[in-house]
Amino acid sequence: MKYALLGDLHSNVEDTKAVLDQINRYAPDAKIIGLGDLYECNIGKRKAETARDLPMKKAAHMPRGFASLLTFPSVRGNQEERIMLVTGREDFEHLPEKMIIDGAVIMHGHQWKWTKGWLPVLPKTDPPLLIFGHSHVAGLYRKKKRLPMEYGEPVLLKKKRYGINAGAVWGAREWVLYDSAARTVTFMKAGLA
What we know:
By secondary structure, this protein is of the alpha+beta class. The chain has helices at residues 13-26, 45-48, 56-59, 78-87, and strands at residues 2-6, 31-34, 40-41, 60-61, 98-101, 104-107, 129-132, 139-142, 145-147, 155-156, 162-165, 174-179, 184-189. It is globular. The model has no long low-confidence stretch (mean pLDDT 97).
């Protein structure tokens, strides 16, 4: 089965539309799954430590037409968690922390540590393929190292442990196509030929 994985939309209508349009053209049969941070929280981490019961309009950037683009399942990101914290509402509680699909675990990426250089310290998962976002930097990881990858070129995954960062929709228009039958990932960027 094919999966189109996209994350870190941060409420950006134009970038989200561009990525969804590319998915519909390039992989119309793929199941779309979100990697979290669909919305942008307007409240920073420090202020969120004490801010409570804020109205949703103040806590989250929710531009007109954005919610109607979110027609796919998603995991919950740190932005959704912060919005719930500062509003006291449970609007995103239904989004799971992780999903398991054919041969892969889907998580946002804020659940584990990152190095100062923004390399992920990946947890061991079962299945061993972990697809995530959070850092806004697309990448292919194996044994604590970043491996080379090119947009639009499928990467054949051996039956080993990998981390796949799909990058960010917001600002970069990145996403990943995962083919579980062929066991490949293809890093994609809307706007590239």
